[in-house]
Structures are given as C-alpha cells and as structure tokens.
Amino acid sequence: MSQAHPYTTLISAANLLLNAQNPGWVIIDCRHDLMDPAAGRTAYDAGHIAGARFANLDHDLSGAKQAADGSFKGRHPLPEQDALIATLRRWGISDDTQVVAYDGQGGMYAARLWWLLRSIGHASVAVLDGGLAAWQAAGQGLTTAEPTPAPGSISVKPALTTSVNAHDVLSNLTNLRRTIVDARAPDRFRGENETIDPVGGHIPGAKNRFFKDNLQADGRFKPGHQLHEEFGALISEPQTAVMQCGSGVTACHNLLALEIAGLHGAALYPGSWSEWCADASRPVAKGA
Questions:
Q1: Which of 207, 212, 68, 221 lies closest to 130 in space, CA to CA?
Q2: Which SMART domains does the protein's record reference (predicted)?
C-alpha cells in the first residue's frame, strides 16, 4: 500500500494513531538498555503499542563482532545485509511498507533501525517523535499481545546512506577532509567515567555533539531550523561529515537529526569508538 507522502524522518503520536490499523504499516519496538540487554524484551512483554514487533539491538539490529580476520568490529557492528533482509521480512515488511520505529529512550535505538532501513534503500521509515511516552501521553494504551505477521518481501534498493570504516577515519587524521562528530556524552568524549569501553577518550580531531542535545525537554526532537543552526556550528558541509559514537548506535540519532535539519549526506562510522580503541596502534585524544 504505497503512500503519496511517506513519513521519512519523524511521525507524531497523533499521526501514528490515525494509521495504526493500516495494513500497509509496520510498527517496531526498539527498546533496549546497554547495561541490561534483556530489559528491552522485558519491557515489550510488559506492554507495547498494539501490533508492534520487537527488535533486539544485539541480535536483530547488529551483526557479528569479529571480522573474518579475527579483528574486533565494535560492540554493535552492522548486520550482514542478508540477515537484515531476513529479519525485516519476518516482521512483515515489504517494499511498500511504512515502518515506524519507537523506543523509550528518545529515539536512541529506534534511529538505528531507521538508518538500517535507509541503508537498503527503504525511505518510508520514521521514528515516533517522543517515543512510547508520547504515545501514552496521547492517552493510548498498551497491549501484551504479540503479533504473528505474514512474511514480507522487502528487497535491496540503492542505499540512501553512506558509511566509512576505520581505515577511512585513520586516513582522515592526515588529510582532515572530513569532520568527525562523536555522539557520546561529554564526559565519555573527554575520557572520563568510561564504563563501557576498555579505553577512554575520543578520535583525535573529533567534535562532540551529545545525541540528547537533539531533543527538547519533553523528549521530542528540536525543530529542524534549530537543529540546522546547531549542527551548522559544528560542520560546514554535511557530505564531508562522519557521525560516530560508542558503537554506531547513537550516531544514527545525530544522522536522523541532520536529516530533520535538511543537512543531507553525512556518513556513519559503524565501528565507532568501540572498534577504534580496540587497536592500540590507533591514536587516542582526551579532554575537550
């Protein structure tokens, strides 16, 4: 069921409600907790938006952590394309499906699914603005019933995203053609209070844009014009910018914010800090 005007960045709770029963729409619950990987499924089982499928960050939205040569690819490497397609089809997603992703953390995990769908050329994917809290604030209830969707038939189309690898980022340290933007909290960026990765610090030359700074106090994204102004102070040309974070997840939140701002073409470094710091030969910077 194609749409004249698909949702490609954000969707409000009100607009989702209008279309929640549309057979051409698929809702995905992306809730997760980095410190408690089982928390997302537990929350889903306790109550979710009717019809929503559950996406596990570690198993559905990430791939193997070890490369063929034995090197570490990061804590949440991108899934292999065939595996991603199989997962999306299992959820009932086809080429004409409008996908809506949500979580309970301001979009930090839902944005990963948004980026992955765009990486296989699927534009009709949006993040629920304000997440589950916005849905409930609109007076909508939750269900514990789990859907059993018919298989979808989504196919791979030309990517709407770009990505870079560790070699590209390392080369950039000498030619400085790209602006690296780190989405982690400022203290972790500075190398303080590192509790997730074995090494604290950041990629030399990187700038810090905490992904939560994309949000308003109510958990919804800031307006596009405000995001445009704030990111414009960090990057001159989005096509030469690279978004990274700890493991390639919250960097997608910054990429979504850039898209909302009308700043198109920035790349993702999927391995991010977790891959970068796993190789002691790569330089590390600390402080602001």
A1: 221
A2: RHOD
Residue 224 included in any domain? yes
Q: What tens digit of pLDDT does each residue of 179-211 get?
A: 999 999 999 999 999 989 999 999 999 999 999
Per the listing, tokens 């009308």 go with: 262
In a domain, 261, yes or no: yes
Residue 182 is classified by DSSP as E
Q: How far is CA 166 from CA 21, 72, 172, in A?
A: 43, 11, 10
> In Å, how far are 51, 63, 246 from 100, measured between CA atoms?
11, 22, 25
CATH of the domain at 198: 3.40.250.10
Q: pLDDT by residue (tens digit) across 142-185?
A: 999 999 999 999 999 999 999 999 999 999 999 889 999 999 99
What are the φ/ψ torsions at residue 99 (nearest 5 degrees)?
-100, 135
Residues 6+ apart with CB under 8 A from 15: 7
Which residue matches tokens 């004409």? Answer: 96
Phi and psi of 255, rounded to 5°?
A: -65, -40
Q: With a threshold of 0.90, does the pTM exceed it?
A: yes
Q: CA-to-CA distance for 261 and 269, rounded, in angstroms?
A: 20
Active site annotation includes 245? yes
Domain span holding position 119? 10-138
* Domain tally, the chain: 2
